[in-house]
Fold these 3 entries.
Entry 1:
Amino acid sequence: MAQGSPNPSRFHSLALGKFDNFKARTDGLISAGDTTPSVGLYSLLYANTAGALIISYFDDGSEGQVVKVINVGNGIVSFVGAQIKVTDSSGLGVDGTAEFISHNSAWYETTRAQGAGADVRLIGTLGDATPTVSGTRLIVANSNGADTITNFDDGTTGQEITFLNIGAGAVTLQDSAGGILVADSGGNLVVTLSQSATMVQYSGNWYVTGASRDLGLL
């Protein structure tokens, strides 16, 4: 190569995709509903859907291949499958990234980063009795009126969330099988201004593991 000539491999060998590839050509865009996107041509994938997307495998991969997924849409991306090993069972929020490496036909997650504020979900007027907690660790209620929550949607086994009420309206966490289970409370848990409750999900149930001292569970 002549002196001064550009060497594309100097950069392309370190990059997962060509510069401006998504903006100009949408290379690596995951089609809506594609649960097993191909990584035969691209190692940099973009999720850009309005609704939830579940990825169960990456097709056409090679041993040692590194794949990165960037969520540029408004939906939550989840990785659920026997051959996809995650470090975090919660969903990948907006502007979040996740990286996997292939070994022995399985994909192992090596890093994950949520977008700014992805772990916190702020709710004004609830209205929804089963708010989603996908990719959420802290759910904050700020309503002036009373509301009731019967369950939290889109949770995963082992996920822990804290429910915090900063509004004037009381929020009732309704005790019921297949939803929220309030241990030793004798019924529902009413969370008022500045009170909080912590729950962990297992086998479809949300178990209350802790709460503000004045709620009587500590």
Entry 2:
Amino acid sequence: MPELPEVETIARQLRELVIGRRIATFESFWHRVTEPVPASHFATRLAGREITGVGRRGKFVVLELDGGEALIVSLRMTGKLLFREPGAPDDTFVRASIGFADGTVLRFSDTRKFGRMAIVDREDLAEDGERPRARPGVPLHRVLGIEPLTARFTTRWLREFLQLRGRSAIKPLLLDQRGIAGVGNIYDIEALWRARIHPLRAFASAAHRAAITSTRAAGRVGCSASSRCTTAPGSPALAAAVPSCARSSAAAAPFTARDASARR
């Protein structure tokens, strides 16, 4: 399943291909791609809009539109965004297609049909904006938390976030997109492995040094996942990830062979 590094790579590649192109058509070939919005309404809102930028928020690919809105794409498990020149042969498992005025097309291929698209206000994606309280009915993109590749993601911030639910296991806490946006199961497990912290251990028992080592490990895993990964200048947590990750015996007991099997 695409997580932060994979989605970031896709966004950077699309940035070179679609910025400045104007949308002429939108077609849906699977009724749930745009739910709960009907595909016809979706097409009407996109027609004539120019793509002004491409980015990432959490695990969403963000296609910025003129007029202050954005088209966000959740790839889920098998989603792909395929840019094609005019006359290109058909791709398999295409669930939606965005046609540009110059004849090029951006196809959304998704074998398992889990991916989704939505048109949202760009202000709802701002990391430093006021976030509504997470509750049923509030879309995930409005309650996404901090980006782990920014200067705001520090050891102090992580410790304070984890202390809010200190009795919970640390693995699901790191997966909570309302806290840290973009981290999925693969990088969560890898970061905890490098920090030598058992995934089921409660944060309260891991204490201060667990936060330090897991923050460093998360930075190392996230950046090593992509050779083109960039971090914000002066990011304390990621700057601390440059030297070897400390493996403190106080942070957690070493994993056993049974523990290691959880990583596969």
Entry 3:
Amino acid sequence: MATGSRSRGWSAAVLTIDVFTIADIILSYITFKDYLMAGKTLAQLAEHVGGTVIGDATTVVTAVSTLEHAAAGEITFLSNEKYFPLVKKTSASAVITDREVETNAALLIAENAYYAFMQIVVLLHGHRKHAATGLSERASIADSAKLGKNCNVHDLATICDNAALGDNCIVYPGVFIGPGVTMGPDCIVYPNAVVYDKCVIGDRVIIHANATVGVDGYGFATHKGVHHKIPQIGRVILEDDVEIGANSAIERGTLEDTVIGAGTKIGDMVTIGHGTKIGSHCLLVPQVGISGSNTIGHHCVFAGQSATNGHLKIGNMVTVAGQSGVAGDLPDGVTVWGTPAMEANLAKKVAVTIPSLPEMKKRIRALEKQLKKMGS
């Protein structure tokens, strides 16, 4: 009896192992099948981005990688002539580019290679997926707060009185959304970000970790050696499709609102001073500093560590090079460089001249001595 029981036990154990093994095989097959199905032929990718293929259009692509690290079955891109040598060596199955280049890979020719690259990354990999957690019992949500449909509020987030969030918003742990804040649909607020009271957040806005929106502007009245704080009664308005980088701070206005225009993307560790108005579709690279009460046009680019004085008017489609200091108003369309910032071509001439200044000084002094001798 004991032997029979042991035998039946082993049989049951083997059966259980077999069932799980079979299940694992099936799941692995489904996963592998899904992986294969996720791939696209070059012809399909070209149709998706409005491009053309040179080479085998039936090549299947399953992922995107860099020129240097891409492998067979992956597509890469070339948008900078600096990387032409890598195109010849790449192991990628295909390269996205805006022209014919020498390579063993197939080519996907697109008018804007970098934009086509973005479209293909989204198609093959998608954006970050957010867990559908619902409203956490460990979050603090005021009774008077209004949340739209399908919002997900994580542990230890705080949503204060009379705040209103649109549909499909994601609020990560540790976020603070102050009293009276309004936020449109499809916004994402990453961990420990803060949105101060009465700020207005548009649709599809992304606020990254530890960013602060609506912090008091740097406003003080100095009287008899004492700095007296000025109440900052304006708000911050982030229009639709704005993205705020990690650890950035957007100050609320002293009297008028601080406004960040639709589609503007602000990098990490950027500071925007109180009352500044930034136009649509601007790019502010990490560590930029914009002083208060500036008016900045649309499609402007501020490269890393560039900065401005306050109370300036900067036109549309202006580019400010990295580490430049803008001290005065700028017209539409200019590119400036240096501190103080000046027109880029002039700044280059100045930069080339600087190393030769000591030698020029010696020569000038020698000439002055000669002229002095000639005069005596």
